[in-house]
Specification:
Elements (H helix, E strand, L loop, with lengths): L1 H13 L2 H21 L1 E2 L5 H31 L13 H5 L12 H20 L4 E2 H29 L4 H24 L6 H10 L3 H19 L7
Antiparallel strand pairs: 1-2
């Protein structure tokens, strides 16, 4: 290590462009390899671990209830417990083609699996576990895919199907908080890249992540009020 540093300084001070280039490339390659070997978060993150575990458990439980309600509806025709008025009708949403979008499998089954993974990641973090950057990139991609899918389902339920699913809305609420808090936190920790600007953006964004959550909630709430003006008069 000492010899490497002496040679590096020699190359830089000498002004030899070719040698400087070689030293600089070596430094970059060493840094890249180091970043690939680092586990994140680099410090124990009990708060985020608890947040992920509770969010995962909340989403998992809601998805499980939806799966049970859907199974009973398909098996016996039993009316779901969330069919409470002409606007909130989980049964009509469950019987739409959007509810079995991928491989003719009920959406809630994916939710059971996905949120179980989130809860396990949170529980592992509580014990002090850390993971490679690639793992966190895949986790972020998965959470974003789930967020996009849920927002698509929100649009379909409100503007196409014409019915609201109460339990689905609970999942939307949980995942919106999960996504908008996790993303800036991951950026701040360097999980999505070692760029100082990216880390700084995450650090500045994280305390104000509630603003995007409120905006997200407001968009959904206003859309429901516009599409279902008689909702609260029933």
């Amino acid at each position: 290590m000492v010899i490497r540093e002496i040679l590096w300084w020699r190359f830089v001070v000498s002004g030899d462009c070719a040698e400087t280039s070689i030293a600089y490339r070596h430094l970059i390659l060493t840094g890249c390899c180091h970043n690939q070997l680092v586990n994140y978060p680099t410090r124990r993150a009990t708060g985020m671990g608890l947040f992920l575990m509770l969010s995962g458990l909340g989403g998992w439980l809601t998805a499980l209830i939806l799966a049970r309600e859907g199974y009973q509806l398909a098996l016996t025709g039993e009316k779901p417990s969330c069919d409470i008025n002409p606007f909130f009708s989980c049964g009509n949403v469950m019987q739409s083609w959007q509810a079995t979008l991928f491989f003719d499998t009920p959406n809630q089954l994916y939710g059971i699996g996905g949120y179980a993974v989130v809860a396990v990641i949170g529980a592992a973090m509580l014990t002090g576990s850390t993971f490679k950057r690639g793992f966190w990139v895949l986790t972020t991609v998965g959470l974003f895919a789930a967020y996009s899918w849920l927002m698509w389902m929100f649009y379909q339920a409100v503007f196409v199907i014409g019915f609201l699913c109460l339990y689905c809305m609970v999942v939307w609420a949980i995942h919106m908080i999960l996504w908008w808090v996790f993303l800036p936190w991951a950026m701040k920790q360097g999980m999505l890249g070692s760029s100082p600007r990216l880390k700084k953006l995450g650090a500045q964004w994280l305390p104000y992540s509630w603003i995007l959550i409120v905006i997200n909630y407001a968009v959904i709430g206003l859309s429901i009020l516009i599409q279902f003006p008689l909702l609260f008069s029933v």
